[in-house]
Write a structure and sequence with these properties.
Blueprint lengths: L22 E8 L2 E6 L2 E8 L9 E5 L12 E3 L2 H17 L5
Antiparallel strand pairs: 1-2, 2-3, 3-4, 4-5
Amino acid sequence: MTTTNMRGPAWYGWEAVAEPAEIIFVGTMNEYYQDIFINSKRVGWLERRPPYCDRGHWKFGCELPYIDGHDSFPRYYMDNTRAKSEIISWLNWRLWKRQVS
């Protein structure tokens, strides 16, 4: 693995995300729910929230190891496009220490 933040026993089985790769959003159930994959490994999900929710209209959940309270999950977003952009940026930084625009 090329990054220093992917060490420890909890990372066993996560070799698919060790190197930078495309982050793909796949709508598996309907337009309100999308799984997030890197090299066929599910790393999280993005789901639509009810319209009355004031924290955000979209919720991002993450399945990466060593996610804790300091990472503030779940994360909420008001806009689907902005959510995807922020998720891609965060995953690139968290996994590979790579900045993307």
